[in-house]
Design a protein that fits this description.
- The protein is of the alpha/beta class.
- The protein folds into two domains: 12-251, Rossmann fold; 258-463, no CATH class.
- It is built from 21 helices and 14 strands.
- The chain has helices spanning 12-17, 25-39, 54-64, 78-83, 111-120, 146-149, 155-159, 174-177, 193-198, 200-204, 230-233, 240-245, 258-268, 277-292, 304-325, 337-344, 358-378, 384-391, 404-409, 419-427, 432-448, and strands spanning 68-71, 92-96, 126-130, 135-139, 151-153, 170-172, 181-186, 208-210, 213-215, 221-227, 248-251, 396-399, 454-457, 460-463.
- Strands 4-7-10-1-11 form a five-stranded parallel beta sheet. A three-stranded antiparallel beta sheet has the order 12-14-13, covered by helices on one side.
- α2 (25-39) packs across α3, α14 (277-292) crosses α17 (358-378) and α15 (304-325) packs across α16.
């Protein structure tokens, strides 16, 4: 069906006449996934590093029609992956007009919808629901109740004069309201175990039980969930019967390739100033080093949000400098990386025994990442003339509030050497901010290689 409101049937009779065919939710997801694969379209936009691991497992689970739980540390893209499932639903689907659960016009399941279908026949009103409305998400918290997920008796309906035995007194919860759609539960182990028990019937028999009522509602819902590994959270667990009802348990992971980490930062960071590629590479390597460090609690993990927040922080530092010093172009430089350490330490959990050494560990790993980036970026360049100039007493001053123009003006004159141009060409620098950032990276690399010295203090850094 097209999205045009004038071309979509508005009654049950018109829907039947149009030749519309009803599909079960899992069949709809399977068919649309297979169509995408057949046509070479990417059904998972915006996901990086999962192509050979997580994605194939998820695709097999969906083709098999399984409910899915994703297990992984924080910041591995579990929620984003669940939200991309929406793209596998039909763009528009018919529902009974005014129905509480969004039932298909061919298959009413509640008492009210069946009564209306019997009374109105082919005149039963049909509305069209967009796929975005067929995805519901719930963050599990210890205070989540059975009423939130499944439903409860609505006292207002009872007060209107209906008897407690009337099924229309029930107020449905999130899962029944997601009928013919996807319901995602984030941090599933945080649900109290008695609440998880209430989900057992939904997951297996596909019906619901509310207090004394036994409603045989043939719910057509895909339940997906995310969870941190139980050995880290210690806040709860997924009870064994519920875990058994998930057809697929898939482990997610952090990006294993540098290019994927960089792609995530570029995609997710909202930057208020230009952050050159070499600085994004430093942040990506820095994050990878933290994930391999024995000083960091790896059960907690190092979220992708760490590098994203780092990029946003150094961009903010660059804009602050440009605004206060009257620079035309706000471009982040190596000197801005130090500002990231000041604010990002709280996003990392260190191993017991490392108290008091947090800044030292972060600084060491950042320097390691910077040195690796310098080697990758400037491999083959001869810095002998620059080192010689500094050894002969020349000094280069930079700092958080030193403008790119002032930095460039203070560089040693290297005669007819084109070293500065070669450095800038390696990173594609064109304006003053980019050129200053490239040369500053080279100076930091020389310092880390113990070719020159560096002194910091009073907001300034002096290479000599």
């Amino acid at each position: 069906m097209t999205a045009s409101s004038t071309s979509r049937p508005t009654t049950l009779g018109a829907l039947r006449a149009s030749g519309h065919v009803q599909k079960a939710l899992r069949t709809e997801l399977r068919d649309n996934l297979l169509d995408a694969l057949r046509e070479g379209r990417d059904p998972w936009p915006g996901l990086h590093g999962f192509d050979d691991t997580v994605i194939p497992q998820l695709e097999r689970a969906l083709i098999a029609g399984h409910d899915v739980v994703l297990l992984g540390e924080r910041g591995q893209g579990k929620t984003r992956l669940l939200r991309t499932l929406v793209g596998l639903l039909d763009e528009w689907t018919p529902v009974i007009g005014g129905s509480e659960l969004g039932e298909h016009p061919y298959e009413p399941i509640t008492h009210e919808s069946r009564r209306r279908a019997a009374e109105l026949g082919d005149d039963l009103p049909v509305e069209w629901r967009h796929r975005d409305e067929r995805y519901a998400e719930k963050l599990a918290t210890p205070d989540t109740s059975v009423a939130d997920l499944i439903g409860d008796v609505d006292p207002m309906k009872v007060a209107e004069g209906r008897s407690l035995g009337d099924p229309e007194t029930i107020h449905f919860g999130l899962i029944p309201r997601s009928h013919r759609g996807i319901v995602a539960i984030n941090e599933l182990p945080d649900l109290a175990e008695r609440i998880q028990v209430a989900m057992l019937n939904v997951m297996e028999e596909r019906d619901i039980q509310i207090r004394g009522y036994v409603l045989r509602l043939p719910l057509d819902v895909l339940v997906v969930a995310s969870a941190n590994p139980e050995d880290y959270t210690n806040r709860g667990r997924i009870i064994t019967p519920l875990k058994d009802r998930f057809g697929a348990e898939i482990r997610t992971h952090y990006p294993t390739e540098l290019e994927d980490e960089i792609a995530v930062i570029r995609q997710e960071a909202h930057l208020v100033a230009e952050v050159p590629d070499h600085l994004v590479e430093v942040l990506a390597r820095f994050t990878g080093n933290l994930r391999e460090s024995s000083s960091v609690d790896q059960r907690s993990g190092v979220s992708a949000r760490f590098a994203i927040a780092g990029a946003e922080t150094i961009a903010a530092a660059a804009l602050h400098r440009a605004t206060s010093q009257g620079e035309e172009d706000a471009v982040a430089r190596v000197v801005d990386l130090e500002t990231a350490i000041d604010v990002l330490g709280g996003k990392i959990e260190f191993e017991t025994g490392e108290e008091g050494r947090e800044t030292e560990i972060l600084t060491h790993l950042l320097r390691t990442a910077t040195a690796e980036t310098v080697r990758h970026t400037f491999r083959g360049l001869d810095f002998a003339l620059l080192v010689e100039a500094l050894e002969n007493g020349m000094m280069v001053t930079t700092g958080e509030q030193v403008t790119a123009r002032d930095f460039l003006t203070g560089l040693p004159v290297l005669g007819e050497s084109e070293l500065y141009d070669e450095i800038c060409d390696r990173v594609g620098a064109t304006n003053d901010g980019q050129r200053a950032g490239a040369i500053e990276l080279a100076l930091e690399g020389l310092y880390l290689a113990r070719k020159i010295s560096k002194e910091s203090g009073g907001g300034e850094t002096v290479y000599g």
